[in-house]
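Lab notebook, bench 4. Still working through the backlog of constructs that have no structural model yet. Next entry is a single chain of 317 residues. Request: give me the structure tokens for it.
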Amino acid sequence: MKIHLVTPAKENSRNGNRTSATRWAGLLRKTGHRVNIDTDYNGEPTDLLIALHAWRSAAAIRRYREARPAGPLVVALGGTDVNTFLKTDPLTTLASMQMADALVCLHDLIAEELPLEFRQKLSVIRQSALPLPRPRNPSKRSFDICVIGHLREEKDPFRTALAARLLPPESKIRVLHYGKAHSLQWAAQAEVEMRANPRYRWQGEVSAGQVRQAYMRANLMVISSLQEGGANVVSEALVAGVPIIASDINGNIGLLGRDFAGYFRVGDEISLAARIRQAEVDESFLTSLEQQGRALAPLFTPDQESAAWQKVLAAVT
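Model written out:
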């Protein structure tokens, strides 16, 4: 089958949307499909359209439906679709969802946010990750926390740095932040934070290989986002065996489960500081995070993700 996969993220982008599109295309190609990734749809011959984002890809979705009224259409919902655009532009977002034959989401709690009429169309496809090539070797001289996410509002990017400021002098925690600044203002704020906070180091945008190296050395990963559709860094950390501390938002709870031990109150650096200090000094707590992550990791394999996609495609073709 010939599949046209639309993502709002450009070809050289390292953001989550492009990462998802590239990985999905690879999985679909391995099962015999021909997949073209583009940022739009303009009438190209295809057997199926997969569109990332109901709102950002709305024009492509509409053009496809006009050109092929009965053509199979899968819309993958982004976090901003559910958390932002259903509120700020519901007409556009709901129109895309209405035109879709199937909806895909990345975590278990998305359904709770959707109107009832769309829930029967919805399938959860957890994003997969590959294990590290060799055993991890976490830092011993310091307790290194990796933060992996671009500097933008939704990621609450400096919450871990603010939490690190609250730690006692004897703490050996370092915060290593990997991600692109989405504006000069964000970059300037990171520079200011580094000058004021000796525990914080912004590494800038890095390759996927460098992120994997960060997982090798990290004692802990923090995801502090205000909203998520199901972050791939959670999948990566789980499969890599990195303990996780996460903001208590649906996008994280829907991946890690309600009984996960490592949540902190979203937007609250005092709560986060208590959690990361606990991970540093309480070996039993850190071990519990590792064990919970190890139990979840089998849900995030390429085979699981591929099988979920095949089930969705079979339902719409």
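Notes after review: Residues 78 and 149 are 16 Å apart (CA to CA). The first strand starts at residue 2 and ends at 6. Flag for follow-up if needed.
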